Amino acid sequence: IASIKPVYKIAAIPGDGIGAEVTNAALKALDTLSQSSDAFALNVNTLDWSSANYLTRGWYMPPDTWEDELKKHDAIYFGAVGWPTVPDHISLWGMMLPIRNSMNQYVNVRPTRVMRGTKAPLSQLDAKPSDLDWVIIRENSEGEYAGQGGTTHGHANYAVATEVAIFTRVGIERIMRFAFETAKSRPRKKLTMVTKSNAQRHGMVLWDKVFHMVAKEYEGVVESDKMLVDAMTVRMVNKPESLDTIVATNLHADILSDLAAALAGSIGIAPSSNLDPTRSCPSMFEPIHGSAPDIAGKGICNPVGAFWSAAEMVRWLGQGKLDQVADQFMEAIENVTGDPKTRTGDMGGQAKTDEVTDAICREIERIC
Amino acid sequence: IASIKPVYKIAAIPGDGIGAEVTNAALKALDTLSQSSDAFALNVNTLDWSSANYLTRGWYMPPDTWEDELKKHDAIYFGAVGWPTVPDHISLWGMMLPIRNSMNQYVNVRPTRVMRGTKAPLSQLDAKPSDLDWVIIRENSEGEYAGQGGTTHGHANYAVATEVAIFTRVGIERIMRFAFETAKSRPRKKLTMVTKSNAQRHGMVLWDKVFHMVAKEYEGVVESDKMLVDAMTVRMVNKPESLDTIVATNLHADILSDLAAALAGSIGIAPSSNLDPTRSCPSMFEPIHGSAPDIAGKGICNPVGAFWSAAEMVRWLGQGKLDQVADQFMEAIENVTGDPKTRTGDMGGQAKTDEVTDAICREIERIC
Ligand SMILES: CC(C)[C@H](C(=O)O)[C@@H](O)C(=O)O
Ligand SMILES: CC(C)[C@H](C(=O)O)[C@@H](O)C(=O)O
């Protein structure tokens, strides 16, 4: 009996180093999930955009066609980009950052919590693992990553270089609204907004202003407060239970989300979703870790961040209809991290990437 | 028998909130120290520059004369500035930031270690307290704090604001050299340089370039490496023992030094020195914490960061001749933090600011 299910088209960009290894693992898990489920199927198109190919072809993404190519898909699954043979600002501006910009992915969602089996530095002190359950909403389209600025007298000893951060009312307001809506949807309904408006008195002050404006609309619904980014790191360490949803600029949230992942026990488990909430372009899902040249090729990297990112992709694609499947996927992931035999080195175990991947597939088959 | 000792002129700016309380405590300790010591005396001139006075007078620092006024001193001791009645960017640009800029204080030194008696989150896990012994060298005169940028269409829904970070070869090279010299003077002789040059491709790339240039001169003497600021937070949490001296931009080091203080157990103990290494202007010493309106006026704030900052001031003033006195001051401080009865609330104790201050004075008298 043939079943009829929606088929989503996915562009998979494994990229460099462990990016390719974890993408491979995530695609296996996704394949098992879609086979086990009546609810959806995936049609995966793998794109060989990487630093190695850049060195032979001269481009990361085909110059005239990459935007059209990506737009043929419902979502993008991304591994990692960056390799010692190419300066980092060339590789990142050759691939990941242009996708975030051109695909209108103005929200980057970064949930952090202490997964079963994780040895979180914080949970060793006074805090309980359940105290650390955050979602960081990162502005993903402007600010410190606008790419503007330049260098004058580059080779002279009086060289001057600038980095120009651009903040727009439109950009700030839409991320603020997204953040308040996210906070509203969570049990604790709390939002903390982060800036550095004491020292940075133009764009950051506009952030404050728009925050106060939007906060008024949510009075009595979402409890909100604001923090300076430096003090925020202290609060994350000392009072994790006081935080819930967090919204910050492109750079600040980049830093805070890595810190969050470290405090939760491993950068290897943290996911990220680059979303176009208007759904006019495909959104992109990637683990927050990078290509990790030091451990690449050894088959020992942690695929859990890639699995979690894949689960978020399924949830996003379903627009509410695949929540149960995504929840089952997450349950399978936590069963795997919960078992000492299927943890990689960064989580204190000895399992290989393949073993963790086999385990997740078995769990998915069992649960779904 | 009259003794002859050098008398240093100090401008004390207590400022706002607990800034005033800890300055008061530090001045008492310094007074006791100079009384007990044959090596130096202090002539302290207290300046009433604060947010409360700003509200009545319309200025933080006397507009035409503040620079000349400060330059009459050998050093500046600073409490904290910032109060809920004045927007933070007005207060900070009204006092602290202009001093750093105009007094040529292009280096900000922020040591972090786990003081005796401190409950450091990290030390609870695998790390030993001795693993966390860092000094962060913060660029203090340009970068993201240059103050440049502006707002256009501020009240419209198409407002645009910019923050312009300025990096100069001169500014980068001098901080890099200071950092390498600092690393060279420490037992482990290691330097980690931090940027975000993968996403910020102008000024940050200039940082990388100057770093590599200066690093060559120290080959075989200082072991150096570089990190991205986001990944750096992870390394601080997971591999504290791998770090020694750290150099970073104004904003990055601001964030990392607060995180460092939190990981070492309390932001209340961390000191900072704003240095003009050319000694053409007075340098400024301040605890890294702020004015803390929530606990101000209760007499419960931790004066240890203020003591440590005062010890650094003595060391700086002595140009090598007061190192022993500064070391004794530090020994006294650690005897006080080492005693549960003389710890403030943030360190898990119940002592009042006054009790800690009395204890430090007794210890100084005993040791010196
Ligand atoms: C108060 C603020 C402007 C200041 C800074 O960011 O420089 C403070 O956080 C510090 O670290 O000295
Ligand atoms: C690789 C880098 C440019 C990227 C970023 O800073 O955005 C990464 O750190 C991330 O957080 O996704």
UniProtKB/TrEMBL annotation, chains A, B:
<comment type="similarity">
    <text>Belongs to the isocitrate and isopropylmalate dehydrogenases family.</text>
</comment>
<dbReference type="Pfam" id="PF00180">
    <property type="entry name" value="Iso_dh"/>
</dbReference>
<keyword id="KW-0464">Manganese</keyword>
<dbReference type="GO" id="GO:0000287">
    <property type="term" value="F:magnesium ion binding"/>
</dbReference>
<dbReference type="InterPro" id="IPR024084">
    <property type="entry name" value="IsoPropMal-DH-like_dom"/>
</dbReference>
<protein>
    <recommendedName>
        <fullName>D-malate dehydrogenase (decarboxylating)</fullName>
        <ecNumber>1.1.1.83</ecNumber>
    </recommendedName>
</protein>
<dbReference type="InterPro" id="IPR019818">
    <property type="entry name" value="IsoCit/isopropylmalate_DH_CS"/>
</dbReference>
<dbReference type="GO" id="GO:0046553">
    <property type="term" value="F:D-malate dehydrogenase (decarboxylating) (NAD+) activity"/>
</dbReference>
<keyword id="KW-0460">Magnesium</keyword>
<keyword id="KW-0479">Metal-binding</keyword>
<keyword id="KW-0520">NAD</keyword>
<keyword id="KW-0560">Oxidoreductase</keyword>
<dbReference type="GO" id="GO:0051287">
    <property type="term" value="F:NAD binding"/>
</dbReference>
<feature type="domain" description="Isopropylmalate dehydrogenase-like">
    <location>
        <begin position="9"/>
        <end position="360"/>
    </location>
</feature>
<dbReference type="InterPro" id="IPR011829">
    <property type="entry name" value="TTC_DH"/>
</dbReference>
<dbReference type="InterPro" id="IPR050501">
    <property type="entry name" value="ICDH/IPMDH"/>
</dbReference>
